[in-house]
Design brief:
Elements lengths: L4 E3 L6 E3 H12 L9 H13 L5 E3 L7 E7 L5 E7 L18 E2 L2 E3 L3 H21 L6 E7 L7 H8 L6 E6 L8 E6 L3 E8 L14 H13 L5 E7 L4 E3 L1 E9 L9 E9 L9 H11 L4 E6 L10 E2 L5 H14 L4 E5 L4 H9 L3 E3 L17 E3 L3 H28 L7
Parallel strand pairs: 5-8, 5-9, 9-19, 10-18, 12-18
Antiparallel strand pairs: 1-2, 3-4, 4-8, 6-7, 7-20, 10-17, 11-15, 11-16, 12-13, 14-15
Helix pairs in contact: 1-3, 1-9, 3-9, 5-6, 7-9
Amino acid sequence: MGRKAVRRQRSDVTIDEDEVLELSRELIRIPSVYTKELDVARHVAARLREWGFSPRTIPVDGHGPDVVAEFGRKDAPAIVFNGHMDTVDVMQGWKHDPFDAKVERGMLYGLGSLDMKCGLAAMMVAFKALARSGAVKNHSVKFQAAVGEEDTGAGAIALIEKGEFRRAKAVIVGEGFGGLDAITVGRRGGTYYDIDVVGKSAHGATPEQGVNAVVDAARLACALDDMEMRSVKGMLDDSFAPLKEAQTVLKMDGGGVSLSVPDRCYLKIVRCTVPGGKVDVKDDLEAVVRRLALRSKVDIRLRVGPADPLPPHLTDPSSGLVRAAKAAVEACTGRTPTLVCGVSEADDNIIAQRTGVPVICVGPGESGARARYHQPEEAVRVSQLGPAARIYVDTVLRLDGAAHQEGKKKQAKGAGPSV
């Protein structure tokens, strides 16, 4: 394959599309299931050093390290490229080798191709191209490769706690749900509940003398599964369907091996909450319990932890970040992207919640039957990789240019220079 250099007409920033593909394949070939990201972190840091950057690593307990790099004015607002290096486990059903990174009929197959090593590669190449061009005048640009996104968000939390979002004006995450026809401007949240169902034990041959916690828990699980979910008027999810809440029973555990009526059963559920909606729905769940009039006692507890509950977030569609990204996609693809809300919680939620900085997701991705996220035969169209890098470059330049124009207006009014 010949090397192609694509030049933006508005600047002298060049993107080598073949380089994006080759780097994507390199990253896919390095196994990095969450908690085992050390090798891929070393590779990312080594490549950044080869390009002339001075990357730093941030230790994350139970994981490999985060990798960060930066260029530009250290006193200026920062535009952040953020992505994750980890993947889920290899699922059953793969026909291609999940670590071979094979290109077949225009599709790049491999674990992490969608989620999100191709987006990470495109951001890395865009980061290098912007730095070498010298075209960014009014900002610094940061690159962050995080660990643990598929686990607890520990990598994103470490970045925040170490001050890596200090001075951040905008965050671009390179994970493209729906592909380049969509910009993810928000995400549903995740609120988890532990539910204990307590019955009464008895001999299994005389069940009428007891209260079967497993049977009552099963009735409760079915009722929870049938609950009506709230929807958001005028907002689409990343499959381009109307956005609504979702609820899933994640775990059910009860009973024993002896001939006894089970007196305890445990349920774990998650409510995927929507922007503008309730984050804690415990009262709704308790209302379901009351309607069922179960004989067992039911205790519902909101799970609280380092990233729990994870509220939904929505970046203002009229913000400078969304406008710049939308214009960049239109310039690159000739199509107006759809603004969507992601159905799955991610590091975006943590970053938006804890920093207050506008966050979007845009990058290579798929929709419909091709959207095999967390599934075997994960693959992405190669034709998206170079354009994704160009979109990252163009978004940064538009944000940088807008800041320049704003500064000129303030100077004209006697307000002094602005960053």
